[in-house]
Design brief:
Elements: H1 2-6, H2 17-48, H3 66-93, E1 104-111, E2 114-119, E3 154-157, E4 159-163, E5 168-174, E6 179-183, E7 188-192, E8 198-202, E9 213-217, E10 229-235, H4 237-247, H5 255-281
Parallel strand pairs: 1-5, 4-10
Antiparallel strand pairs: 1-2, 2-3, 5-8, 6-7, 6-9, 9-10
């Protein structure tokens, strides 16, 4: 069943994907068994209680409790699926990565109709943001570049790059309405709710090798909801670091060097004024 379903599903590129796909296959097996069972019961009832066999209606109905036993059995199986499979799987997927695993932490800020991606830079610390600094054209997340921690931060639009075989923590938030961050190849989907920062944990185990992996908004979020799509690129660690270096903001001149240059400029100006006074005296 799992191999059959794989033909109709996006490729899996996440460490937790096989267990999720296996649970999906189990659920489909149960659905198939239920479908065959209920259809057999339906045909049996049509035959057993047809008008030819019972030309006179019996309004008291059947006295058998078979259908009740079947319904109770189905309910028990559903409880087993929920408690025995779904809850443990969900608990493992929402478990934070250990610091020793060196997880990559990325912020994704949703808005109508864009995914803003915020990387902390080499220092590993996110710079501060402010709503007063938001400029939709040049600074969509309101990053405060005057903050020392924000100097090396990287912000992209609709482009999420991740290294393969490294745990990833995505911190989801929204600037306006409810969105839903869905990446089918990573087997993840999470509602993004204004006023909350919701973490998501997974580990990419496969590079896309030129394939176009889409980040979709799975929640109707406005008139242009259909256009809210981003793209995920999973690459080797070396390729990821090279991409970060390419996207890194231009280095900011150190304050000390700037002060020194300002002092030199002031000395030059003073010398020029003195020279001008000498000429005027002559």
């Amino acid at each position: 069943m799992q191999e059959f379903l794989a033909k109709w599903m996006p490729p899996n590129a996440a460490a937790h994907g096989p267990s999720l796909d296996a649970m999906n296959a189990i659920v489909h097996w149960m659905m198939a068994i239920l479908f065959v069972g209920w259809m057999a019961y339906f045909l049996l009832v049509l035959f057993k209680f047809s008008s030819k066999r019972h030309p006179k209606a019996v309004y008291a109905g059947t006295k058998s409790h078979f259908s009740m036993y079947v319904e109770v059995g189905i309910a028990v199986i559903e409880v087993i699926l929920l408690i025995g499979f779904a809850f443990p799987a969900w608990a493992s997927w929402v478990e934070p990565h250990e610091p020793g695993e060196n997880p990559l932490v990325v912020r994704v800020i949703a808005q109508q109709f864009t995914w803003n991606v915020h990387y902390p830079g080499p220092d590993g610390v996110f710079g501060s943001t402010s709503i007063e600094l938001i400029d939709e054209a040049s600074n969509p997340i309101g990053l405060d570049r005057s903050d020392a921690m924000a100097v090396d931060d990287i912000v992209t639009i609709n482009q999420l790059h991740l290294p393969v075989d490294r745990p990833v923590t995505i911190l989801l938030s929204s600037k306006d309405v409810i969105h839903s961050f869905g990446v089918p190849v990573m087997r993840v989907k999470q509602d993004v709710i204004p006023g909350m920062e919701i973490p998501m944990y997974f580990t990419p185990v496969k590079t896309n090798d030129g394939e176009r992996w889409e980040i979709a908004c799975a929640q109707l979020c406005g008139l242009s909801h259909y256009s809210m799509r981003g793209y995920l690129t999973v690459e080797t660690e070396a390729e990821f670091e090279a991409w970060l270096a390419e996207k890194a903001p231009a280095p900011v001149e150190p304050a000390e060097s700037a002060a020194q240059e300002a002092g030199e400029a002031a000395d030059d100006e003073a010398a020029s004024d003195a020279e001008a006074e000498d000429h005027s005296g002559h």
